[in-house]
Design brief:
The structure is a single chain. This protein has one domain: Aldolase class I (TIM Barrel, Alpha-Beta Barrel), CATH 3.20.20.70. The chain is an alpha/beta fold and 376 residues long. It has helices at residues 28-34, 39-57, 75-91, 128-144, 159-162, 179-187, 203-213, 253-265, 285-300, 340-364, 371-374, and strands spanning 3-6, 21-23, 63-68, 96-101, 149-152, 168-171, 192-195, 217-221, 227-231, 238-242, 272-275, 306-312. Bound molecules: erythose-4-phosphate and phosphoenolpyruvate. GO terms for molecular function: 3-deoxy-7-phosphoheptulonate synthase activity. Belongs to the class-I DAHP synthase family.
Length: 376
């Protein structure tokens, strides 16, 4: 990492009084050029983005599952996880569309490790160029397993380094009301989920979808790293993610129908994703498994507004501090995750739930073909 400028503390100046310095960052074009997506992976990204959009609007009757670690801290463990997930994803693909959660950017309540891109050494050396290279390398490998990828977009400039490889994106609970993030979403090329706010406010997520659907003009930068005025077309594939809030969970049938009411009022697609983790399970990995199982049961019983589910899952259950020495392989260093064994069981349970819902619809439609049979 090369330094462009160190700003001495106490220098007499009206600017940069609180900026310690600037370090060199490769341009998006340089990074993507050195680690190209390639035609085969690009086809997978394009196809999976379309499939995700169709599951979200209900024209594909599968359920979308965004599954993976809270954060990636060890790319090899993430590759190991991807290989396991890809095998089960293939097995359930007629019923479940699996997207691997590959989160490189962590929003913090106050301070803490901000993810692999920001600090790939996990040691406050902040080698961001290496973080971007390692992150992109992992994305390409996950795609090579045949798995589409989902990320949270937190930094307004970082998507230019990785978004070509991403099929689904999230705007998190701490940024869902941010104009900067809504503008960013309006220009992103994949379906974007807006989380409800940390206080449980769902309307801000609905408003996020509405704002992102519109075209915007804002400050940004080009692939060559030049500051520019960005003009977007708007992203019609925004959706709401119910993640619970400070008051507790919000995945009950009444919460889902409340969110649907708000979506209807805003003229948006009336279906949601439920995040089984975070405040919907009190960040408890054991509870998260129970929450996910309950949601699968409701899908089986025909609750059609649940289009998608997010699971935080890794190889080992629970979490550990970054100060653990040694770090346990395959265990989260941020929020608690469910273990791989429970995850594989749940993927199959969601597949069975989708099949049960199809049968139910087939029976109630008195012989009319189900959406699953049409699979348009
Ligand atoms: O998903 C991860 C965390 O919930 C989020 O990054 C906030 O974490 P923190 O409250 O530990 O900072
Ligand atoms: C940070 C996350 O969630 P939330 O924004 O809901 O807290 C996450 O999904 O990693």
């Amino acid at each position: 990492m090369t330094t462009i400028l160190d700003t001495p503390a106490g220098a007499a100046s009206t600017t940069d009084r609180n900026v310690a310095g600037f370090d060199h960052l490769p341009t998006p074009r340089e990074l993507v050029g050195a680690q190209p997506l390639g035609a085969d992976r690009a086809r997978l990204v394009e196809r999976s983005r379309d499939e995700i959009a169709r599951v979200l609007d209900g024209t594909d009757d599968r359920v979308l599952l965004v599954v993976g670690p809270c954060s990636v801290h060890d790319p090899d463990a993430a590759r190991d996880y991807a290989a396991r997930l890809a095998a089960v994803a293939r097995e359930v693909r007629d019923d479940v569309l699996v997207v691997m959660r590959v989160y490189f950017e962590k929003p913090r309540t106050t301070t803490g490790w901000k993810g692999l891109i920001n600090d790939p050494g996990l040691d406050e050396t902040f080698d961001v160029p290496r973080g971007l290279r390692v992150a992109r390398d992992l994305l390409l490998d996950v795609l090579d397993e045949g798995l589409p990828v989902g990320c949270e977009f937190l930094e307004p400039i970082s998507p230019q380094y990785i978004a070509d490889a991403v099929s689904w994106g999230a705007i998190g609970a701490r940024t869902t009301e941010s104009q900067v993030h809504r503008q960013l979403a309006s220009g992103l090329s994949m379906p974007i989920g807006f989380k409800n706010a940390t206080d449980g406010n769902v309307q801000v997520a609905v408003d996020g979808c509405g704002a992102a659907r519109a075209p915007h003009v804002f400050f940004g930068s080009t692939e060559e790293g030049r500051t520019a005025i960005v003009r977007t077309r708007g992203n019609a594939e925004g959706h709401v993610i119910l993640r619970g809030g400070r008051g507790g969970s919000n995945f009950a049938p009444a919460d889902v129908s409340g969110a649907v009411e708000r979506l209807r009022a805003a003229g948006l697609a009336e279906r949601v994703m439920i995040d089984a983790s975070h405040a919907n399970s009190g960040k408890d990995d054991v509870r998260q498994v129970a929450v996910a199982r309950e949601i699968a049961g409701r899908i089986a019983a025909g609750e059609d507004a649940i289009a998608a589910v997010m699971l935080e899952s890794f190889i080992e259950a629970g979490n550990q501090g970054l100060d653990a020495d040694p770090l346990v392989y395959g265990k989260s260093v941020t929020d608690k995750c469910m273990a791989w064994g429970d995850t594989a069981d749940l993927l199959r349970e969601f597949a069975a739930a989708v099949r049960a819902a199809r049968e139910l619809r087939g029976a109630t439609a008195d012989g009319a073909p189900s959406a699953g049979q049409m699979n348009v």
